[in-house]
């Protein structure tokens, strides 16, 4: 067979050949911008020409601090197709982390949205490698910013007439993209994406049995384009010529539902908190929107609550497509689509499968390692998920922490999962949050979820603390709803849990608190809780 | 990203993990055999263990002369997963070509169906490299054949208990399969398929926008498993866990329709002559069959007649999925699926697109080179189709003819095509059959098809012959239907053509004959016609 490389350039060329009239729609500060893949192809070349004149060479890092819009999409293809590396940055990180990331990646040029410029102005002095700032805006002319040197994107595009052409020399294992993921402690860790990985991932999300991206789709990625390439949707959509609907700066649920109605969106993607917000708006103002074109909402990032999946189905006839991945996995690894033999089950039984993260996609291999080696596929035995495959990272970028996570050719995800008889995988915890009690494993997440189904509970977090006999035992901190304070006992909540769990799973204590500390992205800060309560049971016993 | 290889073994392992209960159904001389991917996985290991004991090493060629059945499918995975090469042989070739192919490939072991054993017995003395014959049959015990040494497949499987395990050492560019394609003159030419090519091709046929293979499908490949791996369907179906329905020895249209009815087939694949036969049976005995499960019949090998596509739609509510490929292309290159903007067209207008070979699949690149370089995409300008990509062959196996076909990194298909504004490709001729008249190109196929729509015409073949002024001019040989003989004039047929074609396209003469010579696979023997009539116009002028 021919030794032709799998590259993003081939995706770009395909879109221009087959789908030049298909639309890309982009919501910006001045309203909706609308153009075609044909126009997009031309502007992508102009952007690459401008970057070339600004000195970008193969292997250089070009960063973005940008929303999901058409200019960001142009950078998605222009930068890698020049042989350079597109480094998408989460602009909501702390200034310290932003400085670390930009310096560690040695970014040469930064493309920054006009609404995000102040974030960079505040740290500009600390950025050691950045040569040029390009402001993403409709404006042209002289820039109004303290960033130096800075140009308006549209000014560069307008002036570019070098007739730049992409070279065909890119090898499929060359890096194309880069993204940092936050670490439990310390600085974020960088992941490189290769052309091969991104190309294969694009094929994988076009499979009928995964997400089934198609030319007939109109795709709205809500997940940010700085977050694992918006789960690869911009690359996949371009490969298949799907209409792309990019929601721009800080879209509200109303904005998103209006875009879905007006652009006949068929497929959208976001994290559970996004979908909970959209659900609330739909419940309250259903008649304002037309969701008849929607074939699915992809939900990933963290587990989709079962109740939410059901609410969308029952009240709005919308299917939630549950998926799983990580920054290190490009990201798609699992997608929860019902197998043929499950189609005859009741809708409640089907929901049990839809609420799991799903089946492994073709191309990726998994192992689940529990206390005694590979776990049984019984939906119960827990183990850490290990992954291997052509779109799984092999290291962290110039980072000693590589050796903690990439071992013997496998990515150790740190996620604890079960695998059922049908092969559906469910995340039950993070390895570090799992409670190891007398040689047995207890899922803190399962206990938390069960506590939060009790009518009195507003929030609950479960974690392991030291125990003289059992090594670790779970305890829970609980915030009660206002109406239930002083009226709800520890015994009532333990009784509630006892209906679902074996006795040895039940927390040794439940502590009522006013608030649970959270991370910057709204997750419970379990590390902090564990530190605060580490001697709680030891002190109690003594 | 990790450097993990794309191999057939990973497909096999995925099927065993996720789809162990899904069915494989195989029609044999003793009726229907039915088992699961779980059983299939075990027997594949046993076959590999037996082949290993018989001395098969990585790189060895193991040939098959077999129908589409479960044992052939076991060989499809066992042989490549050992690192050996599966050489599928068309047992209908002439004895001379069979001898050439087997000796040229240096096949070490041949798996042969019991119904095909006489073919090999007749040529056994001429086979220089074959060490062992394995008879595919339900039988066990001592074999009844003149082939030596020979074993029954089931005897080997039953006795195998070595616990053979596949190695993980296979590289993705290692050869996995081999198939010979007939040449215009001389011996057949061999093509090697790599693990990478077959894996990527399997992904490609699972895309929603190509063939959309799915776990929910029940797939009946009628195209032989010796013909470009039954178009890759057995590999793709195993990757996705589709039910496989294998039709066994010499199925009739009745047999095929019964299988479709009973096994709830959703997708089938074959050449136009197969589908014409099935159509006839359906038209005559529709009430005998239940075709409600069918979502499509894939039609390739040669162009699907427009009337047939329409007949299936109108009379049986069955979609024909038109596709194109060659032995050299693994094979899928084009699939004719309607783009979003064509869905509002009338059914007649849509038929114009469905009757074309379709849109290029992701991963493959094309160029169409006409008289003046790359052709315009206007649906009219003709050029030779050139292809490049990871599942396109790069050479013929140990064959000097490689240099005629593989030039500057492109496969020169020898097919003349047009490309329309939407990117749909249509085959209009073979380069060697194109009539080159005064520097312009005339499609012999277009003229033939038009002639055959005339009520009086049974068969027609058009080809170019020498002309003193125009270099070449087309002439036609025509067989009239019995009722029209002696009643139909040359002028009537030319008048019929003049309604559709420019004057300079019309044949210089039409010659009525009783019969048109054909090749062994039923195509017009144009080379013979050209030789016979080469001086026809020169003689006429003088």
UniProtKB/TrEMBL annotation, chains A, B:
NCBIfam families cross-referenced by the UniProt entry: PRK06187.1
InterPro entries linked: AMP-bd_C, AMP-bd_C_sf, AMP-dep_synth/lig_dom, ANL_N_sf
Species lineage: Bacteria, Bacillati, Bacillota, Bacilli, Bacillales
Record flagged with keyword Ligase: yes
UniProt GO MF annotations: ligase activity
Domain AMP-binding enzyme C-terminal: 447-523
PANTHER family: ACYL-ACTIVATING ENZYME, BUTANOATE--COA LIGASE AAE1-RELATED
Domain of life: Bacteria
Pfam families: AMP-binding, AMP-binding_C
CDD domains with a match to the protein in the record: ttLC_FACS_AlkK_like
Keyword Lipid metabolism found: yes
UniProt keyword list: Fatty acid metabolism, Ligase, Lipid metabolism
Family statement drawn from the similarity comment of this UniProt entry: Belongs to the ATP-dependent AMP-binding enzyme family.
Name used for this protein in its record: Fatty-acid--CoA ligase
GO biological process: fatty acid metabolic process
Domain AMP-dependent synthetase/ligase: 30-397
């Amino acid at each position: 067979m021919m030794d032709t490389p799998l590259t993003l350039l081939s995706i770009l060329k395909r879109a221009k050949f087959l789908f030049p009239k298909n639309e890309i729609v982009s919501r910006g500060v001045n309203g909706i911008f609308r153009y075609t893949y044909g126009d997009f192809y031309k502007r992508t070349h102009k952007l690459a020409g401008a970057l070339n004149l600004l000195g970008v060479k193969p292997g250089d890092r070009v960063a973005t601090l940008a929303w999901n819009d058409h200019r960001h999409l142009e950078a998605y293809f222009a930068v890698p197709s020049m042989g350079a590396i597109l480094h998408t940055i989460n602009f909501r990180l702390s200034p310290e982390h932003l400085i670390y990331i930009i310096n560690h990646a040695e970014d040469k040029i930064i493309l920054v949205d006009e609404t995000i410029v102040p974030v960079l102005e505040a740290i500009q002095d600390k950025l050691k490698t950045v040569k040029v700032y390009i402001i993403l805006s409709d404006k042209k002319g002289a820039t109004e910013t303290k960033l130096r040197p800075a140009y308006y994107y549209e000014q560069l595009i307008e002036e570019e007439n070098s007739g730049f052409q992409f070279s065909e020399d890119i090898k499929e294992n060359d890096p194309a993209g880069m993204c940092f993921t936050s670490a439990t402690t310390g600085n974020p860790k960088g992941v490189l994406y290769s052309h091969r990985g991104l190309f294969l991932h694009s094929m994988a999300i076009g499979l009928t049995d995964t997400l089934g991206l198609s030319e007939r789709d109109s795709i709205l990625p809500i997940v940010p384009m700085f977050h694992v390439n918006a789960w690869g949707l911009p690359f996949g959509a371009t490969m298949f010529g799907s209409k792309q609907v990019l929601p721009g700066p800080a879209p509200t649920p109303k904005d998103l539902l209006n875009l879905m109605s007006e652009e006949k969106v068929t497929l959208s993607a976001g994290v559970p908190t996004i979908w909970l917000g959209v659900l609330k708006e739909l419940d309250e103002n259903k008649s304002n929107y037309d969701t008849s074109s929607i074939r699915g909402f992809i939900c990933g990032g963290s587990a989709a609550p079962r109740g939410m999946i059901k609410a969308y189905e029952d009240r709005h006839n919308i299917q939630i497509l549950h998926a799983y991945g990580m920054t290190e996995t490009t990201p798609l690894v699992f997608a929860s689509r019902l197998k043929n033999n499950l189609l005859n089950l009741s809708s409640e039984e089907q929901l049990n499968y839809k609420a799991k993260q799903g089946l492994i996609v073709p191309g990726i291999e998994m192992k689940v390692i529990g206390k005694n080696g590979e776990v049984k596929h019984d939906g119960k035995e827990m183990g850490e998920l290990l992954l291997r495959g052509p779109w799984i990272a092999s290291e962290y970028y110039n980072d000693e922490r590589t050796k903690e996570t990439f071992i013997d050719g496998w990515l150790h995800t740190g996620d604890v999962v079960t695998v059922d008889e049908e092969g559906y995988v469910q995340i039950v915890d993070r390895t570090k949050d799992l409670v190891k009690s007398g040689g047995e494993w207890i899922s803190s997440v399962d206990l938390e979820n069960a506590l939060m189904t009790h009518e009195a509970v507003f929030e609950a977090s479960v974690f392991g603390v030291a125990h003289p006999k059992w090594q670790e035992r779970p305890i829970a901190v609980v915030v009660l709803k206002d109406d239930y304070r002083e009226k709800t006992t520890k015994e009532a909540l333990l009784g509630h849990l006892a209906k679902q769990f074996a006795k040895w799973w039940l927390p040794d204590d439940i502590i009522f608190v006013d608030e649970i500390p959270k991370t910057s992205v709204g997750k419970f800060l379990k590390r902090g809780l564990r530190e605060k309560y580490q001697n709680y049971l030891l002190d109690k016993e003594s």
